[in-house]
Amino acid sequence: MLRSVCRPGEVWRQPRPAVHRQQAAVGYGWVWGTGMATDAVKFGGSLVQAERLTLGVLLFGVAALALSDFVSPAYWLVTAIACVLRLAIGPRFALGEMQASLLGWAGFFWVIAELVMGRSWIVALTDFLLILSLAVSIEAATPRNHLHRLITGTFLILAASVLTDSVLYALPLAGFLLLLWRACRRLYGVGGDAGELPLGDWRADWGALLVMLLVSAMLFVLAPRFDTHSRLQNIQPRLQMSGFSDAVYLGDFARLLDPTVVMRVEVPDTTPAKAKALLQNRYWRGVALSSFLKGKWSQSGDIISRRAAPHSSLDLGGGTTGRRIVLYREAVMHPYLMLPDGATRLPDLPEAAGLTVNGSVKFISPPSSRLRMEILLSAAGSLPVMRPPVSAEGRAPASEAIAAWARRVTAGAENDEQRLSRISGLLRSWDYSLKTRVDEQQPIEHFLLQTHSGHCEMFATSMALAARSLGMSARVVNGYYGGDWNDAGGFLMLRQQHAHAWVEVWLHDSWQRYDPTPASRWDLSGVRFATLEHAWDAVRLSWYRYVLEFGDQDRAGLLTLLRQWVKTYATWLLLLPVFFLVALLLRFAVARKWSGQRGHCRDVLDRWLARQGIERRRWQTLETLPRPKGVDDGRWADFVLAWELQAYGKGAAWTPASLRRHLRALTRMS
Question: pTM for the full model?
Answer without folding.
Answer: 0.71
